[in-house]
Design a protein that fits this description.
two-stranded antiparallel ribbon; 7 strands
């Protein structure tokens, strides 16, 4: 780079407070100055004179830098911050209301609950300020730490832990219980980093990325968290297929898709017939014809939907024991019964708008890593929410619901959801200022030798190139 150009760019960037934007700004300004210089040289101007004139036309570097400082700075998505605090206050309000309607031995609104919520917000803030590009630049290390933590917690819980919901062993830390199952919700984000870091590789690396799910899945399977495993497996499959379709791997797309889909179908067939898999496909049916009394929990949930009114408390028919609904796992059923369809639909509309807005912002991401990371988080939250809604209805799925995002009954799940929200906000904050390097594929997609019309053509193979994340 010419000394005068470098000096000009350095002065411009001194005015820009967000240092991670300096790389992309210098690149854009240098290209503009170079193009203008070439235009002057084409008119017969000397190179040194052309460079000075091109720099002069760019304007005063301090003024240019000041204007760019207003453009290139982290952008806080206030609507998502509003959603987070809306969910936070709603969580507190729901716990307070449930506490008033519950017997004294049931505890929904305690100081420990408030502390857990504040810890969740603190975790979200920490991950908001962490640069999300470390997912790609340090993906293998992050995956190793993730697996190590799960194995450590698993071993400790088996030896010294307590029993939670029959089979899920947890541990105590500072008088707070920590359970392992919610950790599986983080895996899709880690998988995105692995896939991105391995771009340009061939079939073997692609298969290894897919198999990275096995260790977390086996740990969760032993804990009886089968539905979470199933949903995260579906999310991981979607992300892997998306990465193949985007050309991240040096493979034939059709063959690669078949290589992923066919074993997945075979695996699902096998796993669903294992005696240990207590959630059988026969239970996944539309249960509107379920006879009264055939399943107590499902029948009450169905009666709750049938007896709900537009405003106010609904009618459960012959079921006068409403304490079953006093449970955060059945939050939507609780809202529907005590406050009617109007409040339920308002709650659903806020959630729906939040998800749709998130997918729209994810679609607008300029970096592929930002696009995939945001989609991984939003798909995770969406599928868990859909499953919870279906279970709360009692009409579709056997009662084995997952906790509603941002309204879970366990503090560990709440921290995981807020952690995902922090990563999502980090993507939306700096995703537009991510630059990408050039990498090479492992093998060449063109033929070395071609024979046509009695002529042999020997091509010198040129590697295809693809963008890769760059830490600014």
């Amino acid at each position: 780079m010419h000394t005068n150009i470098k000096s000009y760019l350095d002065i411009v960037c001194e005015q820009i407070r967000y240092e991670k934007a300096h790389t992309i700004i210098k690149k854009e300004l240098e290209e503009h100055i170079t193009d203008q210089t070439d235009a002057f040289i084409a008119k017969g101007m000397e190179q040194e004179t052309a460079i000075k004139k091109a720099i002069t036309e760019m304007g005063d570097p301090i003024l240019v830098g000041t204007e760019l400082d207003r453009v290139y700075r982290p952008k806080l998505k206030w609507e998502f911050i509003l959603f987070v605090f809306l969910f936070l206050f709603a969580n507190i309000a729901v716990r307070f209301i449930m506490q008033k309607n519950s017997p004294s031995y049931m505890h929904f609104f305690t100081m420990d609950n408030i502390i857990i919520l504040l810890m969740s917000v603190a975790v979200m803030a920490i991950f908001y300020y962490i640069d999300f590009t470390i997912l790609a630049n340090h993906s293998k290390m992050i995956y190793g730490i993730y697996v190590a933590v799960m194995l450590l917690l698993y071993g400790y819980s088996m030896l010294f832990g307590y029993t939670f919901n029959g089979s899920n062993h947890g541990i105590f830390f500072l008088n707070y219980g920590i359970i392992i199952p919610p950790l599986i919700y983080i895996f899709p984000v880690i998988l995105v980093g692995l896939l991105y870091d391995c771009r340009g590789k061939s079939y073997g690396t692609m298969i290894l990325c897919g198999c990275s799910f096995l260790i977390p899945a086996l740990i969760e399977f032993d804990k009886g968290h089968n539905i979470a495993i199933l949903l995260v497996a579906i999310i991981s499959l979607i992300l892997l297929l998306m990465s193949i379709c985007k050309g991240w791997f040096s493979v034939n797309k059709i063959y690669a898709l078949l290589l992923v889909i066919m074993p997945t179908i075979l695996f699902l067939i096998i796993i669903c017939h294992l005696p240990q898999f207590d959630y059988k496909l026969s239970e996944l049916h539309f249960a509107i014809t379920e006879p009264m009394g055939g399943d107590y929990v499902r029948t009450i949930l169905q009666a709750n939907v049938k007896g709900a009114v537009l405003f106010g408390k609904g009618n459960l028919g012959n079921f006068d024991n409403i304490f079953f609904l006093l449970n955060l796992d059945y939050l939507l059923a609780y809202v529907l019964h005590f406050y009617g369809w109007a409040i339920f639909l308002l709650f659903f509309a806020i959630y729906f708008f939040f998800i749709c807005r998130g997918f729209l912002l994810a679609y607008k991401q300029k970096s592929q890593l930002g696009f995939m990371t945001a989609n991984a988080i939003l798909i995770t939250i969406s599928l868990i929410s859909i499953w919870n809604i279906a279970c709360n209805s009692g009409f579709f799925i056997y009662v084995n619901q997952l906790e509603m995002p941002f309204f879970p009954s366990s503090g560990s799940s709440n921290i995981m959801f807020f952690m995902l929200m922090g990563i999502l906000l980090s993507v939306f904050r700096t995703g537009d200022m991510v630059t990408e390097n050039i990498i090479k594929y492992d093998y060449f997609k063109q033929n070395f030798v071609n024979i046509s019309e009695n002529t042999i053509h020997i091509s010198i193979p040129i590697p295809f190139k693809k963008n890769h994340i760059k830490q600014k």
